[in-house]
Design a protein that fits this description.
It is a single chain. This protein is of the alpha/beta class. The protein has two domains: 196 residues, Lyase, Ornithine Decarboxylase, Chain A, domain 1, CATH 2.40.37.20; 222 residues, Alpha-Beta Barrel (TIM Barrel), CATH 3.20.20.10. It is built from twelve helices and 17 strands. Strands 1, 10, 11, 12, 13, 14, 15, 16 and 17 form a nine-stranded mixed β-sheet that branches. Strands 2-9-8-7-6-5-4-3 form an eight-stranded parallel β-sheet. The longest helix has 22 residues. It is globular, with a radius of gyration of 22 Å. It starts with a helix and ends in a 6-residue tail after the last strand. The relative contact order is 0.17.
Length: 444
Amino acid sequence: METAFNVHLARAEAMTPYALRLRSEMTDAGEWMADMNQIRRIPPGAAAIPSGTGSISPGDGEAAEAEGVGGGVPGAGSKLRKRSQLTTPCLIVELSALDANIALMADLCRRAGLDLRPHAKAHKCAEIGKRQIAAGASGLCVATVGEAERFADAGLNDFHLTSTVAGPDKLARLAALAGKGVLLSAVVDNREMVDAFSQAANAAGTKINLLVELDMGRHRAGAASVEEALDLARGIAGNRHLSFGGVQAYAGHMSHQNDYAQRRRAGDKAKAFIATVRDALTPMVDGRLRVTGGSTGSLFIDRDDKVLTELQCGSYIFMDVEYMAVDLDGKRSAPFGNSLFLETAVISNRIPGLVTTDGGDKRLAAKYGANPLIARGAPDGATYRASSDEHGEIKLPSGGTLPLNARIEVIVPHCDPTVNLADTLYAVHGDDVVAIWSVTARGV
């Protein structure tokens, strides 16, 4: 079955030497996949989530006006009716694919009895966070204190900070957020951190909810044994300025292991450690111990293992070239669609078989050296790479060319850091620009 998706995968094979074979056979992946397909069949123009999330829905007539964006945003102050009128390079979001991905993840977690707290570092955009909350997410994960502050200023109020933090300034800022009524949890992996959080909470006259971070194998942070975890949990629970909130078990090394069997083996090892810690710490809480972690790459393993109670998946909303190489469920079913694209334009076409665009390294980020994948605007067989800070290079088959200002849209290599390079996301429905969203937490 030759679909546009399969064409994209064929190109990815040629462009990403680290990837396994990616060609999807688009076969039935079982009952859950049938359910997913039903969720993803959202009619053009239909609202996928409740209204009132601060965006303009497709079908509202006039395209969005860049009101309140300002700051030199391309197109600000003018009504943008078509994606082809956008000033390049720019990031665009296919709204129907975004909302389908949001609805699908929410439904998967709901059916599995898992809480969903998406990681907002993937998009850094308050409007997308609001859409996730409206679809059923319990709150958002953030990677930095700055992200929590920016999202709180935008009206969101329930965050889990997934990275350990140090320094009185950052801790004071977290305590200030908690003091304003923002629901907040954070992680620690040693007693010195517990004491520092206690001092910050005491100074702000508030209480901070802390989870014990576990070292799941990357040795980036975290308690490495049940005994360490239990000691930390007791230290938190015995402190009147703190509350014990559970455990964070993020096995980040699993997320981009392309081969499902390899990821499954890593999941078995992680499951055993998490379950042992969970059983030791559960008597310290009333009811179920909160165990948070997971990623888009480990989604189906985490769902089936049932040791996590809350998932932190992030990239599923956009997807990217690097995640297209990952066999998410062992069946290569590719349940989440690409919704994020960089739109670029041809700025030189003098050489047969080669054109230059305005989308270079300053607009694209890669974690494993993958190139962008051309989604539309160039013939089959064309390839794209960032050739310098400001320029991209498209090689065309058979000495072909493209006209000046021709628009090419590419799937980005790695979505999280790519979004952090932009001030603005342009939400599109078909050829219409329907909303303009600020990247709320860019650079913090």
